[in-house]
């Protein structure tokens, strides 16, 4: 499995985290794509062993990327939301739902890691 570390360290951030970043305060990808990524994250957040492995293998490696930190930061950024002052109606409602789903991911992450520790 150690031979996959470089690939995971490259593909996980580029395919799952980079699209969720903001550019000039605006999302890089459309709502549907962000919602799909967050739905996938909901599955990953319940796997405490995966979360611990990401942290140990990447964030604790002095030469590695902080994959787990970026993962959590992406969810926090979504949960905090983008400025929807210029957005109205259905689009604002969708953004609010995305915030809730990101919060659910963070909650699931904490619950699964708590269960893993006990």
UniProtKB/TrEMBL annotation:
The protein's matches in Pfam families, at most eight in alphabetical order, are given as:
Sec7-like_HUS
Identify the residues that the record assigns to the Mon2/Sec7/BIG1-like HUS domain, covering every copy. 1-67
Entry's InterPro entries?
Mon2/Sec7/BIG1-like_HUS (IPR032691)
Q: Supply the name of the protein.
A: Mon2/Sec7/BIG1-like HUS domain-containing protein
Organism annotation: Ostreococcus mediterraneus
